[in-house]
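Researcher: I'd like a candidate sequence for this fold, 199 residues long. If you have to choose between options at a position, lean toward the conservative one.
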């Protein structure tokens, strides 16, 4: 359904003479497909956040995750259903853990987890997708952006941990950074596995 909609939108641009069918159709179709899938994922997560009375928390999670992930890269599911289920699983796990564990007694563990996540993001970013290869200049630029964003958001979360009214919001930023780091490690391991398979 998503592929059909994206192809229909790209064909409309071709028919109206806005893009060249041979050179740009595939690029635009893929761009529309990615955009529609992202909207569905974000809409579902926001709906869950609204139902669970965690809308602001959810927005913080999404802003952190989306802003860094576009530059860090990492693991990608093989299809849109897999991507949707992975993202729902990530956020559902985050809600469950934050609501069931008393993190106020574990600030040291949270700080270690936050520091490790920022280190992994800085070390392994960007992990490019085969549909979106990067040149050397882009790789350097993406690494710098991913590092700066993760450090900046990490500092905000760290300050919030020691504020009684902000600590819960900070947890969503910390978990978001943690999931980005996990996605990077999964993507890195999957890439290594493919390389071993070709040797």
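Model: Candidate sequence:
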């Amino acid at each position: 359904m998503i592929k059909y909609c994206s192809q229909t939108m790209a064909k409309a641009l071709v028919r109206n003479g806005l893009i060249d069918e041979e050179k740009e159709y595939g690029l635009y179709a893929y761009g529309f497909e990615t955009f529609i899938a992202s909207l569905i994922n974000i809409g579902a997560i926001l709906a869950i956040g609204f139902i669970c009375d965690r809308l602001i928390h959810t927005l913080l999670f999404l802003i952190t995750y989306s802003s860094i992930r576009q530059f860090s890269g990492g693991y990608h599911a093989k299809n849109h259903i897999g991507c949707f289920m992975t993202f729902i699983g990530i956020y559902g796990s985050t809600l469950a853990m934050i609501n069931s564990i008393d993190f106020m007694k574990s600030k040291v563990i949270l700080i270690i987890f936050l520091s490790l996540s920022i280190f992994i993001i800085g070390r392994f970013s960007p992990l490019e997708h085969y549909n979106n290869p990067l040149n050397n200049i882009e790789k350097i630029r993406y690494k710098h952006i991913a590092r700066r964003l993760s450090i900046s958001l990490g500092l905000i979360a760290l300050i919030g941990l020691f504020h009684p009214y902000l600590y819960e919001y900070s947890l969503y930023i910390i978990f978001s950074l943690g999931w980005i780091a996990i996605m990077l490690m999964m993507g890195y391991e999957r890439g290594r596995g493919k390389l071993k398979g070709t040797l």
